[in-house]
Amino acid sequence: MPKDKPAGWDDAEEGTRDDAVVDQQTERHYYVAGGKRYWFDLSQPTWKQKNSVMSDCLKITDDGADLRLDEYYTDMMELMIEDSSVDVDNLRMFLVGMDDSLGSQLEEDIPDPSGGLAEDEEGKSDPPSGADTPDGNRTQR
Q1: pTM (two decimals)
Q2: Would you tell me how many other CB atoms lie within 10 Å of the CB of residue 48?
Q3: Is 94 within the bounds of a domain?
């Protein structure tokens, strides 16, 4: 059964392949945390890369599925950070130990994990909410 056309359909230009493909160029993002300034060059992940990270961070249980948000954001940051003002030998170790004031700002530039949920699943359960688990990992159910 065909879906209805979304709002603005008739006014929008016809999209091309180039319009639909992620621009692999990086964009510099600036942050100030703890009185210090930082910059990070971020690239946009492709749809496939985001889905791959989502799949890796999804834990299936008897009660359903848990999305481990701590792993999601760390994996996405590791994927998206191309360069930075922070001289680190191991990016993942830096991200795991990063100060919350810088990490929470950087997190705002990472694609929202709930944006990857299938349209069919929306509205079938309670809205996702972040929660701390006994093992200290943030999850989204």
Answers
A1: 0.67
A2: 9
A3: yes
Residue appearing with tokens 């990063």: 98
- pLDDT for res 99: 93
CB 39, CB 84: distance < 8 Å: yes
Number of domains in the chain: 1
Three-state DSSP state, 90: coil
Domain assignment present for 67? yes
For residue 40, give both structure tokens.
């990070």
Distance (Å, rounded) from C-alpha 19 to C-alpha 107?
Answer: 26
**pLDDT, mean of residues 98-111:** 94
What confidence tens digit (pLDDT) does each residue in 66-88 have? 889 999 999 999 999 999 999 88
The residue range of the domain holding 66 is: 23-111
Query: For residue 73, is it within any domain?
Result: yes
